[in-house]
C-alpha cells in the first residue's frame, strides 16, 4: 500500500481547469522495446503491463498505461533504464523486440511545452529527475505518479513528455482506457515467431 501524494487532488483540479485548447491532436508512429513474452499486440496496446508494475507516471494497479517513445533510440534507453538504475548487467534487460505502434489521438497534453508546464505548475526537472522507484520503496506515491493519476482521471488520452532516460528523447505515455473515437492505438506489424 502506498501513501498517496498530498497534492494529488490539487493536480487533478489543475488539469480539469485547463482550457480545452491545451489538448492537442497527435498522430505519429511510436516505438517500444518489449520482452518477447509480452509482445502480443493486445498486451502492448492494452497498457496491461502498466497495471501490473509501477512506472514513472503510474502506480502498480492504479491504471493501465502504455509507455512508448517517438524514436527507437529513446525506446532502447527506456528499456535499459531499469538495469542501469540498479547497476545490473545490461544483459538482464534482454532479449527485447522493437515494435512500432501508431497513435492517433485527439486529447493529448504536450508537457514539452514550457507554457503548459507553467500553467500546470509542474517543473521539467520534477518530471525527469524524480526518483519514483525510491519513493515507491518508501511506500509513497511519487509526484509524477500523482500527476499521471490526475491526467488519467481528467480523461487525457496521452501525454507527451521529455524522457528521463535520454536527454533529448521524447516519451508518449498512452492511457488506453481513455481513448475515445476516433482515436486509435495499434501495432503497425505484429510480432510473429516461428
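Q: What amino acid sequence fits the structure above?
A:
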Amino acid at each position: 500500500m502506498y501513501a498517496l501524494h498530498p497534492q494529488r487532488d490539487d493536480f487533478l483540479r489543475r488539469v480539469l481547469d485547463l482550457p480545452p485548447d491545451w489538448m492537442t491532436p497527435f498522430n505519429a508512429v511510436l516505438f517500444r522495446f518489449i520482452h518477447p513474452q509480452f509482445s502480443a499486440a493486445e498486451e502492448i496496446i492494452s497498457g496491461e503491463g502498466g497495471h501490473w508494475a509501477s512506472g514513472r507516471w503510474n502506480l502498480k494497479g492504479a491504471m493501465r498505461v502504455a509507455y512508448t517513445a517517438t524514436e527507437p533510440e529513446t525506446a532502447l534507453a527506456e528499456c535499459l533504464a531499469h538495469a542501469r538504475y540498479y547497476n545490473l548487467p545490461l544483459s538482464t534487460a534482454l532479449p527485447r523486440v522493437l515494435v512500432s505502434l501508431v497513435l492517433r489521438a485527439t486529447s493529448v497534453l504536450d508537457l514539452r511545452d514550457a507554457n503548459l508546464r507553467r500553467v500546470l505548475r509542474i517543473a521539467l526537472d520534477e518530471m525527469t529527475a524524480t526518483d519514483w522507484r525510491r519513493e515507491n520503496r518508501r511506500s509513497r506515491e511519487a509526484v509524477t505518479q500523482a500527476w499521471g493519476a490526475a491526467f488519467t482521471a481528467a480523461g487525457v488520452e496521452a501525454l507527451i513528455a521529455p524522457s528521463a532516460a535520454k536527454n533529448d528523447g521524447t516519451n508518449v505515455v498512452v492511457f488506453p482506457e481513455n481513448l475515445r473515437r476516433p482515436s486509435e492505438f495499434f501495432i503497425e506489424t505484429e510480432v510473429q515467431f516461428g
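Q: And what stands out in the fold?
A: The CA atoms of residues 83 and 180 lie 35 Å apart.
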